[in-house]
């Protein structure tokens, strides 16, 4: 089965890329990370990858088109290229690859799209510094020009937002405007300003550019000429006053002018960087060429760092505003992304601060990586002095903290609750709390470059140079020191059962160690190779190592079984827990996945993700994800899939734990806060109940007042109704008279209007006819005049022409040729003038008559309009007459209806009078009933007084029981004190036992010494016997016998004293042995008794604790029942009283008497039941007391209790 690693999620940002953050749409941004461009959705948190080219040496710059559809990516290589991607495609389809043709270009430093997204410009780097102008869809270079020289580099280029042909270029001492004309780029502005370092620019309008410099100056150019200038000086923040004295570097930074490294424009103005950690927002003013400083936005302090103010000292590289102009993004030189809503910045004003767009990334080389088993967590450490805990399941940052020293290595405990970090000065074991990473234990291991927990978590290995230290996780003791490497150890791996440890180093050695004995079990040394990574198969039979010799080696039984050659050096290696997959990281930042067993030929799948050498790799416990870190500061999560794109089925079902660590002080603080909140809630409940009671009282009083007012209003309404009836009768008589008068007036007015309108219509009609005749006459006259004028004009022209022609002929004959020519010219001019005068007169006459005709036409139109108006008035008057007639008929019908209504109202009045009489009678009856009910209420109040007295007596009876409960509590406290005393006795006994054990150890040591002495003496006696036997052989030779005896004496005389002392001390040794046996027997019997006593005490303690718990639970239950009974009794009384009141108001007298009698009997029964329950509780309490006393007498001594009794709830 071939396996592929697919990019799933990445944490990190490349700060060295020009324009390294931009918006794709309102929710999606694009930024470079590793060797990829990442499309990141801010709301849904998903990522899509745009991979870089295989042969590229890294991304240099980004540019997005104005329509947000295309993305241009510049990459460094042997030949620099620009790749254009289509962002509308889900996989960001590659559209075109642009190059500089035959020109030797290794990289394009910056790029920009034209306003219509059809053209692209790119600034090439050294040595030529050419500016290229492409029609990118055809991959055609339209023009190229040298924009600057190597001494003055270019930082930014851009198109005019409304002109495809105008380009702006800024850099160190460079501010140039180019225009594309006739197939070439020509400079249009003359650089007359002082040479300054222009770091950034942006187009404010189609002819204005705002430019930022490295000395804090903002310059506004229009058509290449300076129009406006200001200095950006960051305001001192209020946080600086709370800080201690600044360092020398901070003072120098504060004195130096801020560098304006980024500018972004929007509809209201523009935003620019204003020094370290600050962005200034400028807005337009009413003046034409002026902007005002509106607000400042700052990067906040980092509370997770040992020096929170360090976060404020980041330089902002890129600013980007969302398409809707709601959000501002900023990227910094510490590889961080910040965002802020511009609306919130306007609200907060001077105190506006950025927030992290997603999470806080690493800003340096990541040196350590490790995962755990019980939680979906990853730990990383970096040279940026931070340790971060990531969650690969939720793709989030759980914890992070910055320290004072650089972190070189990290190891995460299998439980996910502890982390081991190697710093420059010490190795530190830290607890992962709910909101902090806190140091727990420090070890004197300096510069630990590699550390690792065992799979069981009970041991951990730490590397110090060429020595591997193994410590116990529980006791923190240094168990073993593994020495054998001649060079620095670069990697260590534990076997699955933690019985062996494999290490590799710079000396070319791979050693396998036994972690129980500390001995070396196998070794493989290849001095020509410097190993960088190592891993082990799950069965611990094969070892895989990579190093500087461009090979992957499989080692088993101290021999290299197989080598796989490569074209790049491998930096790290890891194997899956299933043993089927092998992943190798390279110095080029790629991942190679291989099958296991390794194939004979070179077979692997290569995946591109990082832009620098990979430093560490690990695989999750369920083999679903591969995790890699690199020198580019990025953490990349790979999804392990097969070639068909399906995820692998995990053989192990992993259920992640949810527990976390929290300190006792934090827990106590939170519990204290909870208790305070609970007390506050109870106080609020009491206050609310009190206020509700007050409101009930007020509402009852208001109800009484309202009932009284209602009765008074009823009486007032009765009087009003009578008055209204009399007025209604009067108005009816008036209405009938007015109706008759109105009908008569209407008929008269109608007749008058008809006669007057008829006369007016006749007059208007006559006027209309007269005007028509006049207009016809006028038209005829004007036409005749026009004809006459035309005829007269034609006759006059003919006469003039004949007259002048005759004169011309006469003068032509008399004058010479030259004079004749001049006269001809003069005559021609005069003729022209005469003709022009005639034409003018004709035009004047025409205009006069046409104006007169127009005026007559207008008058005719006015007359026609007036006649139309009169016709409309006539028709409207006729309609009014018809409407009036219709209204008269309606009024007649309404009069008939009103008469019928009056008759019905009179009938209703008679009925209401009858109802009023009947209600008066019912009111009198109800008043009598109310009087009777008041009497009964007085009797019930007497009953209530009696019942209250009985309740008081019952409360008095309850008080002694509460006193008894208090006494029981005191007894329980005394019993707990006794338990504590027994506990102290037990501890004393344990101390005695330990002393006796130590004595036993001492006696055992002395015994061994004595045994050794006995053996030495026996050996000496044997030697003496043999020597004596040899002497006996010389018994026939006295001299030799004497010499040998002298030799024996010289040899054994100093040891014979010892033998004599041993013989003398034999009795002492026997006595010592006897006493020792006696002590051993007594210790054995004491141990047996102690075991029995502890078992008895433990069982007795448990039984008593259980009984106490049951008693306290019974007491609590009885108290709850008492409360419930009291509350139910009180509720029943209130409910019955309310029911009785309602029923009394509606039912006759006999029912009321019966209900009151029943309630009285129910109350008496309830009181009897309560007394019976209380008697039973007294008997139960007395029985429990007797049991406690009996237990105290039978068990005077008890071991201490293991836990606390539950609190008695009152």
TrEMBL record:
Belongs to the CFAP57 family. Residues 667-837, 874-1020, 1101-1135 form a coiled coil. May form homodimers. Associates with components of the nexin-dynein regulatory complex (N-DRC) and the CFAP184:CFAP263 complex. Residues 368-640 form the EML-like second beta-propeller domain. The lineage of its organism: Eukaryota, Metazoa, Chordata, Craniata, Vertebrata. One of its GO terms (cellular component) is axoneme. Pfam families: Beta-prop_EML_2. Keywords: Cell projection, Coiled coil, Cytoplasm, Cytoskeleton, Repeat, WD repeat. It comes from Erpetoichthys calabaricus (Rope fish). Associates with components of the nexin-dynein regulatory complex (N-DRC), a key regulator of ciliary/flagellar motility, and might act as an inner dynein arm (IDA) hub or linkage. Residues 1191-1210 are annotated as: Disordered. It is found in: Cytoplasm, Cytoskeleton, Cilium axoneme. This is Cilia- and flagella-associated protein 57. WD repeats lie at residues 359-400, 482-523, 607-640.
């Amino acid at each position: 089965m071939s396996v592929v690693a697919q990019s799933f999620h990445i944490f990190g940002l490349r700060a060295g890329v020009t324009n390294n953050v931009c918006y794709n749409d309102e929710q999606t941004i694009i930024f470079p990370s590793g060797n990829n461009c990442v499309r990141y959705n801010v709301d849904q948190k998903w990522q899509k990858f745009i991979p870089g080219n295989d042969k590229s040496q890294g991304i240099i710059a980004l540019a997005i088109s104005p329509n947000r559809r295309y993305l241009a990516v510049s990459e460094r290589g042997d030949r620099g290229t620009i790749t254009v991607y289509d962002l509308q495609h889900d996989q960001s389809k590659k559209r075109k690859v642009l190059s500089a043709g035959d020109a030797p270009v290794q990289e394009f430093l910056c790029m920009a799209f034209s306003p219509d997204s059809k053209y692209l410009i790119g600034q090439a780097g050294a040595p030529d510094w050419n500016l290229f102008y492409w029609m990118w869809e055809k991959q055609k270079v339209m023009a190229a020009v040298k924009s600057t020289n190597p001494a003055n580099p270019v930082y930014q280029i851009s198109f005019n937002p409304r002109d495809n042909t105008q380009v702006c270029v800024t850099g160190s001492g460079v501010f140039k405007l180019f225009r594309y004309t006739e197939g070439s780029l020509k400079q249009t502005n003359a650089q007359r300003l002082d040479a300054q370092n222009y770091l950034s620019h942006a187009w404010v309008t189609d002819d204005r550019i705002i430019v930022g410099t490295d000395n804090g100056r903002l310059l506004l150019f229009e058509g290449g000429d300076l129009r406006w200038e200001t200095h950006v000086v960051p305001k001192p923040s209020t946080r600086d006053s709370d800080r201690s004295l600044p360092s020398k570097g901070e003072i120098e930074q504060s004195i130096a002018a801020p560098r304006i490294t980024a500018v972004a424009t929007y509809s209201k103005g523009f935003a620019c960087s204003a020094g370290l950690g600050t962005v200034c927002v400028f807005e337009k003013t009413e003046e034409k060429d002026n902007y005002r400083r509106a607000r400042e936005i700052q990067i906040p302090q980092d509370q997770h760092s040992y020096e929170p103010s360090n976060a404020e000292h980041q330089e902002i590289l890129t600013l980007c505003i969302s398409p809707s102009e709601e959000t501002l993004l900023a990227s910094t030189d510490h590889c961080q992304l910040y965002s802020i809503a511009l609306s919130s910045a306007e609200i907060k004003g001077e105190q506006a601060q950025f927030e992290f767009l997603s999470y806080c990334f690493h800003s340096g080389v990541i040196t350590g990586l490790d995962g755990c088993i019980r939680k979906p967590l990853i730990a990383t450490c970096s040279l940026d002095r931070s340790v971060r805990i990531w969650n690969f399941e939720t793709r989030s940052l759980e914890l992070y903290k910055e320290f004072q020293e650089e972190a070189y290595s990290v190891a995460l405990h299998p439980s996910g609750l502890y982390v081991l970090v190697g710093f420059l000065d010490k190795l530190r074991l830290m607890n992962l709390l709910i909101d902090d990473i806190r140091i727990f234990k420090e070890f004197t291991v300096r510069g630990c470059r590699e550390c690792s927990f065992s799979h069981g978590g009970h041991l951990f290995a730490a590397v110090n140079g060429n020595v591997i230290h193994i410590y116990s996780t529980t006791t923190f003791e240094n168990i073993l020191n593994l020495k054998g490497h001649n060079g620095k150890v670069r990697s260590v791996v534990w076997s699955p059962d933690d019985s062996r440890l494999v290490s590799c180093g710079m000396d070319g050695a791979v050693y396998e160690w036994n972690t129980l004995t500390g001995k070396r079990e196998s070794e493989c040394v290849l001095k020509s190779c410097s190993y960088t990574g190592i891993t082990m198969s799950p069965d611990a039979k094969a070892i895989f190592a990579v190093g500087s010799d461009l090979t992957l080696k499989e080692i088993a039984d101290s021999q290299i079984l197989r080598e796989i050659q490569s074209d790049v050096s491998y930096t790290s290696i890891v194997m899956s827990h299933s043993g089927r997959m092998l992943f190798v990281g390279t110095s080029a930042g790629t991942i190679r996945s291989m099958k296991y067993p390794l194939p004979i030929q070179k077979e692997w799948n290569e995946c591109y993700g990082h832009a620098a050498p990979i430093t560490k790799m690990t695989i999750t416990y369920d083999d679903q994800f591969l995790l890699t870190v690199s020198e580019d500061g990025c953490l990349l999560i790979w999804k392990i899939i097969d070639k068909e794109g399906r995820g692998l089925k995990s053989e192990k079902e992993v259920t992640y734990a949810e527990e976390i660590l929290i300190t006792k002080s934090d827990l106590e603080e939170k519990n204290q806060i909870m208790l305070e909140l609970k007390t506050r809630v109870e106080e609020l409940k009491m206050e609310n109940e009190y206020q509700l009671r007050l409101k009930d009282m007020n509402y009852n009083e208001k109800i009484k007042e309202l009932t009284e007012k209602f009765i008074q209003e009823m009486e007032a309404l009765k009087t009003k109704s009578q008055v209204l009836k009399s007025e209604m009768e009067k108005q009816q008589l008036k209405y009938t008279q007015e109706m008759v008068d109105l009908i008569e007036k209407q008929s008269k007015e109608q007749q008058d209007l008809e006669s007057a309108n008829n006369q007016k219509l006749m007059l208007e009609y006559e006027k209309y006819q007269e005007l028509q005749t006049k207009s016809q006459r006028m038209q005829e006259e004007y036409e005749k005049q026009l004809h006459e004028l035309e005829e007269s004009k034609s006759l006059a022209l003919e006469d003039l022409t004949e007259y002048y022609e005759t004169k011309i002929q006469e003068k032509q004959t008399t004058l010479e040729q030259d004079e004749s020519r001049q006269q001809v010219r003069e005559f021609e001019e005069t003729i022209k003038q005469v003709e022009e005068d005639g034409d003018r007169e004709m035009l004047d006459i025409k205009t006069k008559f046409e104006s007169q005709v127009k005026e007559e036409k207008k008058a005719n139109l006015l007359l026609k309009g007036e006649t139309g108006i009169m016709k409309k008035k006539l028709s409207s008057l006729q309609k009014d007459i018809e409407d009036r007639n219709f209204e008269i008929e309606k009024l007649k019908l309404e009069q008939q209806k009103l008469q019928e209504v009056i008759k019905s109202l009179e009938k209703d009045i008679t009925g209401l009078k009858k109802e009023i009489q009947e209600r008066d009678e019912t009111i009198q009856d109800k008043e009598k009933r109310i009087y009777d009910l008041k009497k009964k209420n007085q009797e019930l109040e007497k009953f209530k007084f009696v019942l209250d007295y009985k309740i008081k007596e019952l409360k008095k009876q309850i008080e002694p029981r509460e006193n008894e409960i208090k006494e029981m509590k005191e007894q329980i406290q005394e019993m707990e004190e006794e338990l504590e005393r027994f506990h102290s006795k037990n501890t004393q006994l344990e101390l005695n036992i330990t002393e006796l054990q130590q004595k036993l150890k001492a006696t055992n040591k002395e015994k061994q010494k004595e045994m050794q002495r006995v053996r030495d003496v026996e050996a000496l006696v044997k030697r003496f016997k043999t020597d004596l036997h040899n002497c006996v052989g010389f018994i026939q030779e006295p001299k030799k016998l004497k010499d040998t005896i002298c030799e024996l004496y010289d040899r054994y005389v100093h040891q014979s004293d010892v033998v004599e002392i041993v013989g003398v001390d034999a009795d002492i040794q026997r006595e010592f042995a006897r006493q020792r046996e006696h002590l051993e027997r007594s210790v054995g019997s004491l141990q047996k008794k102690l075991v029995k006593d502890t078992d008895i005490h433990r069982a007795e303690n448990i039984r008593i604790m259980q009984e106490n718990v049951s008693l306290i639970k019974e007491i609590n239950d009885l108290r709850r029942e008492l409360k419930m009974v009291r509350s139910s009794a009180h509720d029943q009384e209130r409910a019955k009283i309310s029911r009785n009141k309602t029923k009394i108001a509606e039912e006759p007298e006999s029912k009321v008497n019966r209900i009151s009698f029943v309630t009285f009997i129910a109350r008496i029964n309830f009181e009897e039941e309560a007394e019976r329950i209380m008697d039973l509780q007294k008997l139960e309490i007395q029985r429990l007391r007797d049991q406690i006393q009996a237990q105290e007498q039978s068990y005077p001594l008890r071991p201490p209790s293991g836990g606390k009794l539950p609190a008695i709830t009152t």
